[in-house]
Design a protein that fits this description.
The structure is a single chain. The chain has four helices and two strands, in the order βαβααα. With about 120 residues, the protein is mostly helical. Strands 1-2 form a two-stranded parallel sheet. It folds into two domains: about 60 residues, no CATH class; about 45 residues, no CATH class.
């Protein structure tokens, strides 16, 4: 199980429960000096790297689809949040529609979104 140790989770109880089942608990966000050498540290590094790559790929995908590489066409925190939430919602609706039509998910998605 991968958890964020900096979150307000009673890690000690979770760690004891997993040790009782002979399972490893991989915790991210550990405090203390580097390098961390406990069991599971390599798994944590791999998972962190995979998460980072997937988030960056999704971020770039969204910026390309909604032409948000520079400034967004809104001002103010609330309007910008509304723009971002709307973009995610429209993206999910587009993916759902394309899935129901048995279309290739990403091919021509930008053109599809422009037509809506």
């Amino acid at each position: 199980m991968l958890i964020d140790a900096s979150a307000s989770v009673p890690c000690c109880n979770v760690r004891q429960a997993y040790l009782a089942r002979e399972m490893f608990l991989v915790a991210s966000g550990r405090r203390g000096s580097y390098p961390h050498t406990d069991a599971g540290v390599e798994v944590g590094r791999i998972l962190h790297r995979l998460r980072h790559v997937s988030i960056e790929n999704l971020n770039e995908h969204f910026k390309t689809l909604f032409e948000a590489h520079w400034s967004v066409p809104t001002t103010g925190r609330r309007d910008t949040a509304r723009f971002a939430l709307g973009a995610v919602f429209v993206y999910q609706l587009a993916l759902l529609h394309r899935h129901e039509q048995d279309s290739v998910t990403n091919r021509g998605l930008k053109t599809f979104l422009r037509a809506t």
